[in-house]
Design a protein that fits this description.
By secondary structure, the chain is of the alpha/beta class. The protein is about 40% helix and about 15% strand.
């Protein structure tokens, strides 16, 4: 199986304490900060065995804490692989931004809209706007919670996006994720289902309005387009939505292979046979697969959710929120099919 993305799990240390961080509940050990050369060999083998470039994603905790380790990986692989980083942005400075641009990084920066101070304790768009505008491969990512709804989020980045277009001649890339909570539901998960549906419906209606003339296109329209495209790929409940452990590899500096970059479940190490690793993933997913997903109306978009979430959480929270979030996409898709 083609390896599309290799997550480098640099460490769990972080300089923020986001209320919804999934690592709070399922990460119980510190990771090694010494890079084993076997990890380099392992990645080189993946690179040489594939025609298309894989992606190397630097992940934490907060990966910018480990910037010197990031440079070691980049020095090793040069332009043989694409680079990505997921950061809260608090440590961003001119040096880091220049480095990312020079090495063609995609930079995902977490931002939860106007209520970021509530959910994350830090509003990166307010504190680091000038630096963010300089990042060529910027992607703003948010999490849907009681304090952050889709249209509100896109409205909060509208002025920033205008400045970004002026500088880079393209919209800033965006992504929204639904709140994940594993048996630790709190006030963040008290999402107003009707409001969630209505805001997604508004975004879909705007998407319809701009289809003919292709004028007044906004960042939200490109995001809606990306959700519609999921309909092109049939949902296969035999495989996890994220493909972690399969075409996405999660590896630590010392060569341990993890089920997910947000878990502490070790599958093996870089010296193991990839077939055995894949078999372990499929067995884990088979045990944790949610059968109700098979006939769900929005399974092609949701794709079964996160395999680390409990059945209780799925039943009491996630399934309902997913349906309200994705149903306008399904309805939109049906309009274009008709």
């Amino acid at each position: 199986m083609k390896i599309a993305n290799i997550f480098i799990m640099l460490g769990h240390e972080c300089n923020l304490n986001c209320k919804y961080c999934i690592q709070h509940n399922i990460v119980n050990e510190q990771l090694s900060h010494e890079i084993d050369t076997n990890v380099f060999d392992y990645i080189h083998k993946i690179i040489s065995s594939q025609k298309e470039k894989s992606k190397l994603t630097f992940f934490g905790g907060e990966p910018l804490i480990f910037f010197e380790d990031i440079k070691k990986y980049v020095n090793e692989f040069k332009r043989k692989i694409r680079y990505n980083i997921v950061t809260n942005g608090k440590l961003l400075n001119e040096e880091y931004v220049n480095y990312f641009n020079k090495n063609l990084f995609s930079v995902g920066v977490s931002y939860d809209g106007n209520n970021s101070d509530i959910t994350r304790g830090y509003n990166v768009l307010k504190e680091k706007e000038d630096l963010l505008l300089k990042i060529k491969g910027l992607c703003l990512t948010g999490v849907i919670t009681k304090y952050n709804y889709p249209k509100d989020w896109f409205d909060s980045i509208k002025e920033f996006n205008k400045k970004y277009i002026q500088k880079h001649k393209r919209h800033v890339t965006t992504n929204l994720d639904l709140l994940l909570n594993n048996n630790n539901l709190n006030d963040l998960s008290n999402i107003d289902s009707n409001l969630l549906y209505n805001q997604m419906k508004e975004l879909c209606n705007h998407y319809i309005d701009v289809q003919d003339e292709k004028t007044n296109v906004e960042a939200s329209d490109l995001y809606i387009d990306s959700l519609i495209e999921r309909d092109l790929h049939k949902y296969d409940y035999r495989f996890p939505k994220c493909m972690n452990g399969m075409n996405i590899i999660n590896v630590t500096n010392d060569g341990k292979l993890y089920l997910c970059h947000n878990s502490d479940i070790v599958l093996g190490n870089v010296k193991n046979n990839n077939y055995l690793i894949t078999k372990k993933v499929l067995n884990f997913y088979k045990e944790h697969r949610k059968e109700q997903c098979i006939n769900c109306d929005v399974n092609v978009y949701c794709r079964g959710g996160c395999m680390l979430q409990s059945t209780e959480t799925m039943n009491n929270y996630f399934c309902n929120v997913s349906k309200q979030f994705f149903m306008p996409i399904k309805e939109l898709r049906e309009i274009f099919i008709d």
